[in-house]
Amino acid sequence: MKERPPLGQLIIYALGQFGWALASFGVGNALVYFYSPPEDASGLTFPEFIPAGSIILGLTLIGIIGFGGRVLDGFTDPLIASFSDKSTAPKGKRKRLMAISVLPFALFSFLVFLPVSGSLLVNCLWLILTMVLYYVSFTGYLIPYTALISELGHHPDDRLKISMFISIAFAFGLILGSQVYVFQGILEESYSPTIAFQLVIAAFAVIGLVLMLVPIFFLEENRYALQNRRAPSLKESLSGVSSHTNFKYFVISDLLYWLALTFIQLGMVYFVTLLFGMEKEKASEFLQLSFVFSFPFYFLISYLNKKVGKKPLMVSGFAVFIFIFACIFFLPIIGMDIHKVFMGLIVLTAYALAVFGVLPNVIIADIVNAEEAKSGQSQAAVFYGARNFMMKIGISLANLIFPSFLLLGKSISNPAGVRYSVLAALVFSSIGMIVFMRYREVDEGQ
Fold it and tell me: For residue 404, what pLDDT is reported?
């Protein structure tokens, strides 16, 4: 049995999560904002870099490019996961692939937002190329990184502790990332909105790169990670994951969670400006306070997990999401003070973020450890890779669908598209809760 990782090693590991959350914030949450910006009194925030209207069946080009890039990337996920599981690199089977992927990941997280031409066609081709390379390098870092959750957490208590650490780190990454609108506004005193936004994204990429390098250089993987050098073939791995009924219930519900969450993140700047009637900086405030207020809930979730288990808490997270979207949709007829509603939704969002921030990684770690105890084979990367693939599909679907709703109205005089997007997110959360209710908890002691 390997040594349990000390606090210092957990912090080193969690800094990598902080880094990739920050570096990926732009593509995950601000792509639609940059390429299909909201309209204000003076017109569009950014110039039209690519065609913004409907291309086919009400779908926009930015939505199709974002979705297509992630679907293409999805085919590389199992290959990267299998490669990571089979790696025998002497300095760490997971860290090797992370080291190869980290620089292109950070670089392309910025280049996606750097149109190279005045030609809409050239910009489209450039965006497609950079998106594909971004997703492949993102996967190359993320899959081996997340596989370490179960390998460092070979004791049940450590699995929950590691998940809490990386959830807090992820929250810090999103808190800082959500300030993109604030930083953009500050820099607009000296630069155009486009240059100001790009400078912020470039800074996120550099800071994210430095943080992602920390576990590569300083995590003692060989000392603390319990890893089985035997790995099944790619076909066997995929067969095992796809036939795991309990895992399928989890990842399908997880896909719907990410779909709903991404609607919040993509839509927040539209919600606060068009539905709440506030300035765009309030979108950053909402996301920032939601993650800050989620920190106390992490400890509550850890306590309640031991009392009631993961399943009831996950169901409660979905229920809170449903209530949040219902409140936003019916905002015009609620008749309450808008600022009180705003703060109430922040607290509710904080609880849901804590639930979904802590528990999913522990659930997968429980499944991985139980399966590896049965088979004696290393499968962590494949299970986490499958989860990451479904997460990316959820985010991609949101990026595909959300811009289409905006075509129905994204102005103060006609916010219909924004309101319908809220209703869609409510439906996604409801289906996610129904699916997850079929999940059976795994004995975390396995």
Answer: 82
